[in-house]
Amino acid sequence: MFKPLPVFIGLRYAGAQRRNGDTGGLVSFISGLSMVGLILGVALMIVVMSVMNGFDRELRERILGIMPHATIYNSAPDIDWPAVRDQLAADPEVVAAAEVWQINALARQGSAVAPLLVQGINPDTIVRVSNIDRFVTPAAFNALADSAEPGIVLGKGIAEKLDVRVGEHLSLIVPSNADGEQEAGGRHAARLAGFVVADIFHSGTELDQSLALVSWDQASALAGGGSGAGVQLRFQEMLAANWTLRRLLKDLPAQGFYGTDWSSTHGNLYQAIQMSRNLVGLLVLLIIAIAAFNVVSTLVMVVIDKHADIAILRTMGASTREILLTFVSQGALVGLVGALFGGLLGIMGALTVTDLVAGLESLLGIQFLKSDVYPVDYLPSELQWGDVALVVGAGFLLSLLATLYPALQASRVQPAAALRNEQ
C-alpha cells in the first residue's frame, strides 16, 4: 500500500469528490473555485512585481543611463572645466566624468514653441557618462560642431510638438540674465540662435519630451558666459550619489562649486516606484490570502461529508495525527496545484505582457502610456526568479495554513457520535 497512509487517503479524497453525490459535487465546485482564485492571484502578483521591476530597471538603465548620477557646477567664468573633469574622474568612486553646459531655453519653429533643456556637450566625453549614443547616430554628433550650420539633436516628443523633421531648421531662444547684454531701452535682450535638426532620438522615456543636445561652443554662446557649465558624473554606487557628491565638493580646491544628484531630479519617481511596488504587492498578497483561505470552506464541507469515514478510520486504529495529516494533505494538494499553475501562468504573463500591451495599443490605435505623463512610453517588465519563488512559496504556505483549522476539527470527530448520526 502507498505510504504514508494519511497522504494516500487525502489524495483519494481530493480526487473522488465528484463521485460523492450532490455534496461531493458542491465540494468539488468550491475546491475548483478556490484553486482558480489561487492560480489567478499568484499569476497576477508575479506579473505586477515584474512590471514594477521593469519600471525600476528603466529608471536605472534608461533615464539615469542618459542623465548623469550627479552634476557639479560653478558660475565663475574662468574655470578650466577639462582640468576639473580630469580631477573628478580620478576619484575611485567616479566611473566617468564629462564637461557639459545646461541651459533652459525655448525652441521655436514657425508658430510652435516648446520649452526644453539644452545640453552643450563634447561628443568625445559625453559617451563616457551617458548611453545617449545608443539613440543618436555618430553623424549627428559630428553635425553638432558644424560651424556653418550648427546642428541640434532633439527628443522625439519635442520634435512632434514643433512638427520638425531631420534636416529642418528651428530657433533657440535663451532669456538673458540680469548681467547680460541690454537693448537700447535698458531691457535685457534674449539670445537667439538658429540650428538644423541633425537627429531625433527616441529613448522611450520622459527625456524625449525635454532634452536637446548642441555642441559645447554653441551652448557657451547661448549662455552668454553665464552660469550653466559643469561636469557630469557617473558613480560606482548610484544610491550613494548624494554622499559621494558632497565629498567631491569638499575636495575641490576652488570656491563656488555646487552640485545636484539624481535624487533631486528623479528621486520622487524612484520613491513612487518603490512605494507602488510595495502597496500593489500587499494588495495582491491579500487576494492570494483570500483565495488560499477559501480552502477552509472546502475542507470544512469535506469534513462534514466524511464524518462516517473518519469514524471508521478511528475505530480501525487511525490516530489523531493521521486524521489531521489526511486533511492537511488534501488541502496541500489544492494549494500546490494552484501555486504551481499560477506560477507558470505568471511567468508567461511577465514574459509577454510588454508585447501584449504593445499589440493591444496597435490594434486599438491608443497609446496607454505617454512619456509626457509617465516615465516611459511603454509597459516594461523584468522577471526575477526570486520573486517567482517567493510568490509561489507564499501561496502554497498560506494554503497550507488554511488547512489547519478544518483538519483539527476532523481529528476531533468522535467515532461513536459520528456513526450514530449516520444511522
From TrEMBL:
InterPro entries attached to this UniProt entry: ABC3_permease_C (IPR003838), Lipoprotein-release_system (IPR051447), LolCE_TM (IPR011925), MacB_PCD (IPR025857)
Annotated PANTHER family: LIPOPROTEIN-RELEASING SYSTEM TRANSMEMBRANE PROTEIN LOLE
Keyword Acetylation among record annotations: no
Keyword Transport included in the entry's annotation: yes
Pfam families: FtsX, MacB_PCD
Biological process according to GO: lipoprotein localization to outer membrane; lipoprotein transport
Cellular compartment(s): Cell membrane
Protein name: Lipoprotein-releasing protein LolC
Record-annotated membrane-spanning stretches: 26-52, 279-303, 323-341, 388-408
GO CC terms in record: plasma membrane protein complex
Chain ranges of the ABC3 transporter permease C-terminal domain: 282-415
Source organism: Microbulbifer thermotolerans
Keywords: Cell membrane, Lipoprotein, Membrane, Transmembrane, Transmembrane helix, Transport
Recorded topology in the membrane: Multi-pass membrane protein
Top-level division of the source organism's lineage: Bacteria
Domain MacB-like periplasmic core: 31-188
Similarity annotation: Belongs to the ABC-4 integral membrane protein family. LolC/E subfamily.
